[in-house]
Amino acid sequence: MNSIIEAAAAKRAAPVVATSPMTLHTLQAHENARWDAFVRACPDATFFHLSGWQKVIEGSFGIKTWFYYVQQDGQILGVLPLAEIRSRLFGHSLGAMPFCVYGGPAATNDAARAMLDQAAHELAQKLGVGHLEYRGMQRFHPDDASWHTKELYVTFRKEITGDDEANLNAIPRKQRAMVRKGIKLGLRGEVDNNVDRMFEAYARSVHRLGTPVFPKKYFAMLQEVFGDECEVRTIVTDDNRLVAAVLSFYWRDEVVPYYGGGMDLAREVAGNDFMYWNLMQAASARGCRLFDFGRSKLGTGAYDFKKNWGFTAQHLPYEYKLYGATALPDNNPLNPKYQLFIKMWKKLPLPVANFMGPYIVRNLG
């Protein structure tokens, strides 16, 4: 009897041997649930690997995408979403992914990852792009000299607890005082089922910065496609005046405030400070234990603002492989050649900027 039991246990413990080769595929609409099930289970994957980004990017900007996956014996082993940007102003590129802070291959083994890499390489050659870009929190090819990186972006990520008082006390004193100012003035947060107020605050904010605005349709599609994982939180005064708003993503035990902005009133009442605190409170109550403040460019006001919250900057080593291009891309508002454009954009009437912005921003990625 013991020998039978031992044989059965050995059989259960034996590794599963693949019976078919790995194969490469592109995602079809009926496979979205299967793709997302893999993404949610894969440690390397992020919110920005979800299949919904294909609908959002193609539907909002008319940009062509390729969502590659590798499977074996009917099981997905790796995914790589890619999109093509073709612009006279900013060049021709293939990236994982435009409009996303994180991207690149997410796989459960090296062989699947290599197959996805090869697919991206062949597609880049076929399209004749200037460069291929991966956006990871770590380098995918640290020992491959054909892949380049540069210091431009950092991300800010910090653990939070389920205790509001502990989270508030973890904020440095000067920044905590700004949060308390908003609390004393009676600001409050409301969750919206549309993007109307959020877009108004966001559009006014980016116009002050001299930055083209994303189309309102894009934000509406994010809310529609990602449902409960996409929250629009609006901050108002005690007499219901719009102060600020932020669109955030919820992923696993993380919250990612992604797009936001404030009205002119926000500076007077510490509206942006209160907004992120109000989001932190809501995320904590929802069970989140990591606050991802998102990426910022070195040397910008957004970078300084996030550091003031006590978050430590973590370099994002985005990787670039050059094809037709001879230099790394520099689509950066800190680039001196864009300063005149930024000054001119700030002077445009807001309705004009809101009309023209989407035609420009779709080429930035």
TrEMBL record:
Domain BioF2-like acetyltransferase: start-end pairs: 174-307
Family matches, as Gene3D superfamilies: 3.40.630.30
Pfam families: Acetyltransf_6
Superkingdom per UniProt: Bacteria
InterPro entries: Acyl_CoA_acyltransferase, BioF2-like_GNAT_dom, PEP-CTERM_FemAB-rel, PG_Glycine_Bridge_Synth
Record protein name field: FemAB family PEP-CTERM system-associated protein
Record organism: Massilia cellulosiltytica
